[in-house]
Task: structure prediction
Amino acid sequence: MTPFAAAITGIGLVTPAGTGVEENWRNVLTAKRTAARDPGLTGLPVDIACRVPDFSPARSGLRNAWQFDRYAQFAIVAAREALADAGHEPGAWADSARVAVVIGSGAGGTATLEAQHRILLQEGPSEVSALTLPMGLLNMAAGQLAIDVGANGPCLAPCSACASGASAIGIGREMLRTGVADIVIAGGAEAPVTPLYASTFARMRALSRRTDTPETASRPFDGTRDGFVLGEGAGVVVLESEEHARARGARTYGKVIGYGASADAHHVTSPHPEGRGAELAVRAALADAAVSGSDVRYVNAHGTSTPLNDVIEAGVIRRVIGPGAAVSSTKGVTGHPLGAAGAIEAAFAALAAYHGLMPPTANLEDPDSRIDVDLVHKEPRAGSVDIALSNSFGFGGQNTALLIAP
Result:
């Protein structure tokens, strides 16, 4: 059976690298440093984060933004850009029941929930907002987006921790393959830079403690890395079958040709020490696309900047993909936006394939001697990207791998 390919006809990005694809791509290629002291985290053991700069939902045309948690605002703004990029006019669908929405998140409206819990404790139940659940639930970015664009097809909100956004894209491709939809708006959104999330990740010793030099704290694959930096944002792509995209003369960035998912079945937070689950996901994606590891030319790694994850992932890449692929992690720029990361990074992988340009890993100065892969750092690398692999791994041992071809 011929492998199925889902065309990527539009991309929308809201990340610490900026709002919009053009700004994001420019800043990722130049390895812009975005981490800084965060006023919302003042007094906590780790008070640094990668925030979306100068984000204004009003300037982006989102009315009644106060009714949306920040993560849903990100999702809608990114989706609107992706749809415009794809040449679709929301609400003017030929058949709105054939338009699906799949937006993953690991935390959902956590900022709303934390704020309303403080109000409950300090002011009492009568002061809790009636919008707490409509703003805080994990499915509300997807639900609000479907309302915003008038999509009546399936509306899903996969939650697979830091693999959520990548899972959404994989599920979106499956919807097209099985004929459930003609168009899928897929991606991930997250706004986890909150006192609760920062405190719990700090207690787990997952965050970088380079609070005196926050701009270089996120340093994937570097020998001196000591943890990740919390990020936020959204990545959304418009997926269509190749036939559907061709029929309307759409420009495509590339196509999702493989999707693999797995579970470590090992530990709630620590990855399997040999990367068994991650390897299963990558091999499943390769089998799905009917290609071999040696066909992959670029890997946008999960690469969180934690001591354990980066070594294990590099080992998986070396075993399954081999020495022929260039590897980088864009989390050196964006920090770790948790459930949005996989979608943001899949978008960067698609852009790398489209432009023939592989972004460097920001802040990578002294590569860990245990990491035996071809790391892109200091400067972007030009070259044909026949196939790009985007890895996403999450708590609970949930793994997703996507293969993207130009």
